[in-house]
Recover the amino acids of this structure.
């Protein structure tokens, strides 16, 4: 039986990994070794490990790594703690393969620790670009430390091959997050509003804004400008979700809490919604504002207009539902939101397709994990030269 260690560090990657985890757990020729780390274990970020436990998945190891701060030093120390924790986990579990998703520092620690153990790594969502975040460098470093690659689009497949990875180990199966949209029985608006405690008779807009981690001291002025802009929209109820555990995220959280305190009749903040409520919210929302990757990956399946602010997602493939605001200025943001809410813009999205693929990615990934050869030559990678 092949032992498969799956690493999850946040509500975001767990949502994308859910059907892969479920598929591995249900496959009799595979043994799931779920390693939970990062924000899942932090009360500040909703202690979302409880969601995993409620879903019924056995947790093989918990790796505590987050230092209680959001400074540059704290993030670097968290990475070090993570490597120690993952080393101990791998020594104990002895997995045959490690599965990771994305580009965060928690994933970097997990993959770097796997190298000395000679454990093959399967990486999901590589080849992408987020030029405003340290995730850009993390993602490409993870790609070079990984051995099997599951990418979301053909462009990203070509990019990974351009980085010297063998084409025979790069598989374009689409984004597994799309499977949630089609597999889950999403809530109707009445039930959703009742469960969240928000009004049913207003337009609902989702707001998620993360720090742009390759910029210094921009979090406070950026979030201040954005919140100043959304005050202009009197008939909208704003549902805020927390930032990731990134550098200077606390400044953003503080300003959002102040906004919600000052405007309780038109806003609410949630540490974590879980996949069912979050995707149901995407289904019934009028708009998404911020810089979350879900605006580019999941929102297109709902034909949901997205106002994407700043550089965090610069370089990622996006559908026609995304309106980019490069400069974080009140006037530009107000203009973009007005455009996104206009009947003409919504009408223009009726025939759009999600550029990140169709349902079925998770099944294909699990099957490849089950059948792929894990012989020594997989670990001894050669740089693949593209011949022109």
């Amino acid at each position: 039986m092949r032992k498969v260690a799956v690493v999850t560090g946040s509500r975001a990657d767990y949502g994308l990994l859910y059907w892969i985890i479920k598929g591995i757990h249900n496959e009799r020729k595979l043994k799931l070794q779920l390693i939970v780390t990062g924000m899942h274990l932090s009360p500040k970020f909703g202690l979302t490990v409880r969601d995993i436990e409620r879903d019924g998945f056995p947790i093989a190891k918990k790796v505590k790594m987050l230092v209680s701060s959001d400074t540059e030093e704290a993030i670097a120390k968290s990475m070090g703690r993570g490597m120690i924790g993952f080393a101990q986990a791998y020594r104990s579990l002895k997995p045959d393969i490690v599965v990771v998703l994305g580009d965060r520092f928690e994933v970097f620690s997990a993959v770097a620790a796997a190298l000395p153990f000679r454990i093959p790594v399967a990486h999901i969502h590589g080849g992408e670009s987020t030029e405003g975040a340290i995730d850009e460098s993390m993602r490409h470093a993870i790609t070079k430390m990984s051995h099997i690659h599951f990418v979301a689009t053909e462009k990203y497949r070509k990019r990974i091959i351009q980085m010297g990875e063998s084409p025979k180990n790069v598989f374009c199966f689409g984004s597994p997050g799309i499977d949630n949209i089609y597999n889950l029985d999403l809530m109707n608006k009445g039930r959703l509003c009742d469960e969240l405690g928000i009004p049913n008779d207003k337009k609902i807009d989702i707001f998620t804004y993360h720090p742009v981690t390759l910029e210094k001291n921009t979090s406070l002025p950026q979030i201040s400008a954005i919140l100043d802009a959304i005050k202009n929209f009197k008939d909208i109820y704003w549902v805020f979700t927390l930032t990731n555990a990134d550098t200077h995220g606390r400044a953003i959280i503080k300003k959002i809490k102040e906004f919600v305190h000052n405007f309780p009749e038109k806003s609410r903040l949630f540490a974590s919604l879980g996949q069912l409520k979050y995707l149901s919210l995407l289904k019934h929302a009028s708009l998404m504002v911020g810089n979350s990757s879900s605006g580019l990956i999941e929102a297109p399946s709902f034909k949901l207009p997205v106002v994407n602010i700043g550089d965090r997602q610069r370089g990622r493939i996006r559908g026609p539902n995304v309106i980019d605001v490069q400069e974080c200025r009140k006037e530009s943001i107000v203009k973009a939101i007005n455009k996104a809410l206009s009947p003409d813009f919504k009408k223009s999205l009726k025939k759009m397709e999600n550029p990140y693929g169709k349902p079925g990615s998770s099944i294909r990934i699990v099957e490849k994990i089950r059948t792929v050869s894990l012989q020594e030559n997989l670990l001894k990678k050669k740089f693949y030269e593209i011949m022109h």
